[in-house]
Amino acid sequence: MKITNILFASTLLIGIVSCSKLDEKPESLLVSEQFYLNENQAVSAVNGTYRKLYESGQSIYNSLFQIGVEMATDDYEAGPRARNAHVRAISNLTHDASNDRMEQLWKQSYDAINASNQNIEYIALISPEKINDAIRKRLINEAKFLRALHYFNLVRWFGPVPLVLKPVTSLSTEELYVTKASEKEVYNQIIADLKDAENLPNYKSYGDNDKGRASSGAAKSILAKVYLTQQDWSNAKLKAQDVIDKEGYDLFPEFTDVFNIDKKNGIEHIFSAQFKGNSGYQGNSLASRSAPADIPGINGDYADAWHAEGGLYGTFSKQDKRLNTTFTTGMISPVDGKYYALAKPQFNKYYDESVVGNQSQSSKNLPIIRYAEVLLILAEAENELNGSTLLAQTSLNKVRVRAATGDIEKNLSKDDFREAVFEERRKELTFEYQRWFDLARRGATYYVAKLKAAGKTNAAPRHIHFPTPQRELNLNPNLKQHPDWVNN
What percent of the chain is predicted at pLDDT more than 70? Predict the structure, then answer.
């Protein structure tokens, strides 16, 4: 069953059973006896968990990431029509533990984790005659992949977080009043889940109805990124090389192909948030959030996706083929046929020409990880291990050559090559939810310097993490605030 074509009935059911409502008998207690009875229900359950990545206009990979995380970078700032004070606070770096975007990042992540925990627990219990064993193993490993992805986000955002590996089945204080695990413990679980998920099928083995599911290559690629984040350069290099050598991915010939609807889930797309507008399913709301609001017939919002005054647009050379896919400087109105120049360049990766008047129904997928990033992971890890070797240069140059920016300068120092990789990541992965993570993993000094250079003078060392949401602290006496955010 194609992930973008799941019946809403099954999606709603999964959403319901994932909630921990304060009922006398929570619905989650009934899930194993009322659902999870056969293979079809197991598939529907996991499909519903995929949809938690992107199922609404402000879900994690459908704008919440952008307005809740990327606003706190040198690439983004709240636009003139941004009305939410919490979004503007993140953009201005005046946010605190009461920010509702922090609350949603936490809440939605744990909702998805609980759904994955249910899948892992209850699919294992389905009678053998009701489910093919290979399908059972695949679905459980898909659930582990999704759980690892959410924990990877959480630990990078918030630092130490609760590590919950079983579905919530009661309202006991033991289950509800959890404590935080250390970052090391969380990363150990992420790695364990992804190693299990490496046993998933190769993406090429999936038929058309299963395009977009997690695969062995997706697990290995995210694992390479986990190692990179931990500065485990040797394992990051080995895992990235494994993806390159064995999984069958490649770059599209042209950068524009990455965002071509007709080429979705293609040779470069390792794992993506799946969108399908005008079909009763979910469109990519990032298109409307970045499209102009004042051009007749375009009907964008212009609210949240302005690039920061530090000048992201200006970092691209004019011959860079990524420039005109990533940004637009003006559009022709479908109503009066006139060209309207924009006050400043706007993000444009997810603009869908087939739904000009309703960009909230954009069908362009959002890459969570793609082959170009694996090449950049290899380049970075190799440089950290051995300097700017031929392998490091070749990996980086594959991305640069497609962009028509030419080979990187030879004989760069390790420090200069590192900075070149980060600047390449910034340009290649603009508007793909990578910049905050990249800045934060370089450390507080680097983050603050970059943000202040972009005119965000409130940047402080604490901003390489987000505060534990105040609502969670109020509800759970065993949770403690991140030390960097105490008394801030």
Answer: 91
| Rounded CA separation 133/217 (Å) | 22
Measured from the Cβ of residue 343, the count of other Cβ atoms closer than 10 Å reads 12
Helix axes 414-428, 371-386, angle to 10 degrees: 170
Q: Is the pTM of this model over 0.90?
A: yes
User: Angle at CA 35, nearest 5°, toward 31 and 38?
Assistant: 140
CA distances (Å), 234 to each of 227, 309, 324, in order? Answer: 8, 37, 36
Burial code (b: 16+ CB inside 10 Å, e: under 16) for 424-451 equals bbbbbbbbbbbbbbbbbbbebebbbebb
Angle at the Cα of 460 from the Cα atoms of 458 and 466, rounded to 5 degrees: 105
What is the rounded average pLDDT of the residues 105-129?
Answer: 97
Q: How far apart are CA 314 and CA 312, in angstroms?
A: 5
Whether the Cβ atoms of residue 317 and residue 427 lie closer than 8 Å to each other? no
Other Cβ atoms closer than 10 A to 488:
11
The answer for residues whose C-beta is within 8 angstroms of residue 280's C-beta and 6 or more apart is 8
- Nearest to 304, CA basis, from 315, 293, 294: 293
Q: Render pLDDT for 320-356 as a digit per residue (tens, 0 to 9).
A: 999 999 999 899 999 999 999 988 888 899 999 999 8
Q: Please give the sequence-ordered ranges of beta strands (E in DSSP) within 325-443, or none if there are none.
A: 327-332, 339-347, 366-370
DSSP assigned state of 165: -
Reported as a single tens digit per residue, the pLDDT across 449-470 is 999 999 999 999 999 999 999 9
* Collapsed DSSP state (helix, strand, coil) of residue 433: coil
Q: Is the pLDDT of residue 10 over 60?
A: no
Phi, psi of 341, rounded to the nearest 5 degrees = -80, 145
* Phi-psi map region of 380: left, alpha, beta (phi>0 left; psi -120 to 50 alpha): alpha
Please answer whether residues 244 and 220 qualify as being in contact, where contact means their C-beta atoms are separated by less than 8 angstroms. Answer: no
- Residue 481: exposure state from Cβ atoms within 10 A (0-12, 13-18, ≥19): middle
CA distance 44 to 152: 24
